[in-house]
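Crash report, auto-generated. Payload:
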Amino acid sequence: MSFLTTIANKIAPIYPMAKRWLYKFHGGVFPKYNKSLSTRNPIYPPLIPNVLILPLPQAIGEKAEPLVKVGEHVLKNQLLAQADADANRKLVVPIHAPTSGTIAAIEARTLPHASGLQELCLILQPDQQDQAIDNALKVDGTWPEEPQALKDLLVHSGIIGMGGAGFPTYAKLPKQKGKIHTLVINGAECEPFISCDDLLMQTQAKSIWHGAQITAQALGCQKILCGIETNKPKAIGLMQKALDAVQKEAKSLPMEIHQVATVYPMGGQKQLVFEVTGIELESGGHAIDQGLLMMNVATLAAIHRAVEFGEPLTSRLVTVSGEGLQEGFNIDALIGTPFNELTAIARPKSPIDYPLIMGGPMMGVRMPDNHVPVLKTTNCILANPPEPREMQMPCIRCGECMDACPVNLLPQQMYWHAQGHEYEKVEKLNIKDCIECGCCSYVCPSHIPLVQYYRHAKSEIKALNADKEAKEIAKQRHEFRLERIEREKAEREARLKAKKQAVKKQASAAKTPSAAASAAKAAAAKAKAASAKGNDNKPLSAREKAIQAAQKAAANKQGQTDNDKKTKGQSIATAKDKAIAAAAAKKRAQAAAAKQANATNNELSTQTEKTVAEPDSQPMNAREKAIAAAKKRAQDAAAKKAQSNPKTETTAEQQKAPPQVEDSQTTDLSANDQQTSPALEKEQARKQAVAKAREAAAARKKTQQAKAQESITEAPENASDNEASTGIKAKPADARQKAIAAAKAAAAKRAANKANSANAQKQKDSTE
Amino acid sequence: MSLATMPSPPSSPYAHNDQTVRKVMLQVQLAAMPALLVHIYLFGFGIVVQWLLAVATLIVVEYSMLKLRGRPVMPFLTDLSALITVTGLVFCIPPTAPWWVIVSGSAFALIFGKHLYGGLGYNPFNPAMLGYAFLIISFPVQMTNWIMPAEISGHFIGFGDALQIVFTGSLQAANTSFDALTGATPLNEMRIGIAQGITVAETLKPIEGHTSHTGFWLGLNSWAWINIAFLVGGLYLLWKRTIRWQFPVGFLGSLFIFAWFMHEINPEMYPPADFVLLSGGTMLAAFFIITDPVSASTTPIGRFIYACGIGILVYIIRTWGAFPDGLAFAILLMNIAVPLIDQYTQPRVFGHDH
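Recovered output after restart:
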């Protein structure tokens, strides 16, 4: 005993709060324990009630699937219900028959839960024979060496945390060996009235230690610490005795009993771990992540019985106590025993017409109905007659709650904001760390049910956060959509701009090397190339003629060789067809033609990019539609390019173009180039013209995507070469030849634009 | 918030330590008893008359305000919080002040200090100090006209005398007049002395029949003994955990250090620390006024800062301000700072980083 402990113990009689100096964590309260109400009597002999109610869902997790039918006779320890699928995921806990008997019904019964919820329960009618299946879990008594082996065993044993939380033990254990360095045994039992753990430690101390050893061995723990409150001297003595015996039997890892101060809530995980190990569990974290595992004494005893004897968990020590009972006691009650059957044998002072409490007075739950079954987590059945309660007064900010809070929260501030529905502020005050121990309510001189406010605030915050999250997702989706629209628009505009610039550059490139005449020629050729595609009649009547001529030529000569469907349509054309084809083609080529015309005109007049951009931008809207239409049209034909550099084709539209077609076409074209037969020459020329025109369109598209990567210096060189060649070829005045020349000019243009890219190179090869 | 009496709490915990607001307030009232007795012994029954007047006012004001606010009267009238308010105020005013001083002061404190803000638990300012500030600004003459203790004036004021003085403003006694019984308090004397260039030591020099007379118990004057009585009551409250140590320690500590430091710098201009601590309402404030939890800071560190702030402000106002005792203003000023202090002094929650 340290000096401070001595002082505190000396002062405690006159200054009770000196007891707070006896332990490490903040706050805590010292309620009237009343434990002798149940400890003064021996453990009550085993009792088989008239009916057992076995809820399919346990404290935590989903419902188990029943394996038995109504009317079926079952034996003690027989598996009655189990998980259907992945038990680990749903935290399902199997149910075993606590005694032998008949399944009377499978029906909804009220659960021992504050909500008064009804859930499916197996109703077992005991036959009082208590015929049991020995070693129901089929174990050989050896202790598992690996965590998974223990987990596999526990998943069938039906063991859950028996301290109150009821988390399935198999799910609580880590999969990895050596992750846990310290196993903490919780024998604190800090709640008033409850004495079942005390009695268990007195009667089954060895089993508890063995259970701890089994767990520690499987998990590879380095030490075992057992925390017991100083108000249980008998338990401490017997546990120590058992510990000595266990350690004498076989060499074991270090095991130790820590006598901890008697204070509520010493039995809380964070509090007891801090007390016995000095490690502060992080907020929001799991104990196992810090290498710690805490288990209740009852859980460890159950583990021992399961591992050693193959016994599933079918009964537990329950304290039946309270100020309304004359003879409180502890009993090894079968799971499913109705509460009122147990309180009836404790000689109630007055008929129990008030609700019983499951658990202790600090954290217990008031039962909606007294005919509810004992669960694996039921440590106490408390019969405290209701007392008149003081009226709730306003908070006077006295701070008693703050001084009592074991996690050092500011309950008065949380209450203030919770009352004002300022849940964000409540959240900021770390309400999530509240363990709902009830210390604040216990000391509140204004009798404010603080914990209730916090529970409400927590649920409100949960709802708010869920709402916020949903809103955030919706917002993100909306923003993404806007962004996508914006991006698509920008891409479209960039494409247009690049197209324009490409045309412009082409024109300027054409101009530099050759004379003004050749520029004019090129312009004319371009115009004709456009008309060869079968379109823009408006600006020039000469062009119109060219179009018609070209179309006729196309109609006559193209025939089956045409790859493009639409051009095919044109090729089969009658007069009507021609007209339709012309109309269709018009759209497609409008953009190119107009742009070319524009670009050329602008180039001729001013030459600088800026001046070009200005006049261009104005007619853009009007032309945009036409361009878009032309683009679509051109895509099909321009598939060749798409294939040569698929990466650049990002939009869905472009991806539509089948790459295979392109291959065949390029080979076709190259083949055509090589052919010398005069009969086919015209046809091929026509074909080429069309193809090139399309390619030109597609090429422009690409150039936009290439985002003007092409260097200005290189472009003119290539372009000039092409231009020179086109100039020579353009000499023949034949309409068809003109068309060819025009197409070549277009190709040159395209080539100039793409001079840098491998793409352009390839295409140039194929067309030239 | 339901005000109806419920049979038992709707959810856990179902246990309670049986502490109530009433018990807390009653403890404070009990702790003030030594000071009250000493006060009666030294200054006569004036304070009893004042206290009875205050209680009468309290009942009328509380009843009518609760009725007007549509609140249940009995639970709130019997929470005894108003009693603490008026008791604090009564100790601050001269025991022989005219009856309307305490009546208007109490009414103001309760109405404007408490009910208009929403009643118990919702007042941002200390009601007693609000009432006192109201009085000292409105009636400075009546509020500074202190009666001399019997040891100096040589006349003990009985209950009858007190009634007569309070209600008529004069005393028809055989051998003395009311004016002869009044004088400046030591604090006031110190102020005036310093203002007139008289050194501190000179002012404190024990003179027979003067406030500086120290021939009384243990060489301390009557005002000092009142303060000691409050200290005793305060220690009781600390033991009972009705008040928190941060308040008196912070307040008295900062006041002491400040006073000691100033006295060391210039002993002629600044009174010694023991004089500062045992004069005026220092101990009353330390244990009974600034400990009012409603208007004080609520975090542990915040309470200390709050108390230190008051200590420093009290010394500043006493020394360089316009009022002889700066308590009320120091407390009200710190009341304003409470939300800010609370905001920045939240303790570290278990499992969180420092």
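Post-recovery validation: Chain B touches chain A through 47 residues (CB under 8 Å).
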